[in-house]
Design goal:
InterPro entries: Hri1 (IPR031818), Hri1_N_sf (IPR043047). Pfam families: HRI1. This is Protein HRI1. The protein is mostly beta strands. The protein has a domain of 131 residues: Lipocalin (Beta Barrel). The protein is built from 3 helices and 17 strands. The strands form 3 sheets. The chain has an 8-stranded antiparallel beta barrel with strand order 3-4-5-6-7-8-9-10. β12 and β13 form a beta hairpin.
């Protein structure tokens, strides 16, 4: 029995009290569809986009990597790139990173909320289209496990704000020999640039590079905003990106202690996407391969071209049936 004071305040209980409805609701296990939408780390591949009520199409190679702490790197390479022009000049190119936040509609009054749906807001910390961008959309989980996203944003072909529908799925499976037995969402390792105390101008704008690299399973993406140039020069505000994929390559078998083995075997190797726009004649620009070497620990640091990168998230490799 619950005991209340003269002013209605709850003082305590005598005996074994029944749980209140709100307590029961908090302890109720989330339905599987909510777990699926909230699942992180995650790897998302866009299958197509439809503007207004037109049929969907896909003119990009879009990959989104999201970490356990909801950091993400979203890179959208144009499917057909004109090599004579910088990739940033293509209206289909878009790259950004930041944090995401997902919410579900509450049950209020007599209303019934729609299951298999959620609302998500993506705050862009780095964006090839400019600073201060936040986008949001409604997510609908489809029966096959894919996801449809509906919202409003600028159509790069028309320049107008229009309704869009994006269709998202997971990456191909079985890329490497261990893909069948290991969780494809692990390991998950994240590194970010570390700001210095004097890295802001009087207006609060950053004078130094800022960047994020996320490696999840067989995929790694990095994004970096360059240092602001003198007098706000355009080259100082460029956004550079790299994408790496671990794939099977044929290699010669190494000699063994019992003799020399002839033939070939397949080994996993990291391959950089040719559409990455970091300078290739200047050595390593972003430490993507350092992050992917399998030995990274929380707090590890490396300096590349005067910029310090630090590992801020680590989820070790796990078997397919292990919980993350």
């Amino acid at each position: 029995m619950e005991i209340y004071g003269m002013l209605g305040e709850r003082l305590g209980t005598i005996g074994k009290a029944e749980k209140r409805a709100e307590d029961k609701a908090e302890e109720t296990e989330l339905p599987q569809w909510k777990k699926d939408l909230l699942q992180k780390p995650s790897i998302s591949v866009r299958r197509g986009i439809a503007w207004g009520y037109t049929p969907p199409y896909e003119d990009t190679d879009t990959l989104v990597l999201s970490s356990t702490q909801s950091l993400f790197v979203d890179i959208r390479f144009p499917s057909k790139r004109q090599l004579s022009k910088p990739i940033t000049s293509d209206p289909s190119f878009w790259a950004f990173s930041g944090t995401s936040h997902m919410t579900f509609a509450p049950f209020t009054g007599d209303t019934t909320t729609m299951p298999y749906s959620a609302h998500c807001v993506w705050k862009h910390e780095i964006d090839s289209k400019g600073p201060g961008i936040t986008d949001e959309g409604d997510l609908f989980l489809l029966p096959n496990g894919d996801c449809m996203e509906v919202g409003m944003m600028q159509n790069p072909q028309t320049g107008k704000i229009e309704m869009y529908k994006e269709y998202w799925t997971g990456p191909p499976t079985g890329v490497t020999p261990t893909s069948a037995t290991m969780d494809s969402r692990t390991p998950c390792v994240v590194a970010t640039t570390q700001a210095k105390p004097d890295d802001q101008d009087p207006q609060g704008a950053s004078r130094q590079e800022s960047g994020v690299i996320i490696r999840i399973g067989d995929y790694c993406q990095g994004i970096m905003r360059q240092r602001t140039g003198e007098s706000g020069s355009p080259e100082g505000n460029a956004v550079l990106v790299e994408r790496w994929t671990q794939s099977l390559v044929e290699a010669d078998l190494k000699p063994t202690t019992t003799g020399t083995s002839k033939g070939h075997h397949h080994a996993a190797s990291w391959v950089q996407d040719w559409r990455s726009n970091t300078p290739c004649d200047n050595g390593v620009f972003m430490p993507c391969m350092w992050l992917c070497d399998g030995n990274r620990k929380l707090g590890d640091e490396i300096m590349v071209k005067g910029v310090t990168w630090r590992v801020v998230e680590v989820v070790p490799e796990k078997a397919a049936n292990e919980e993350i």
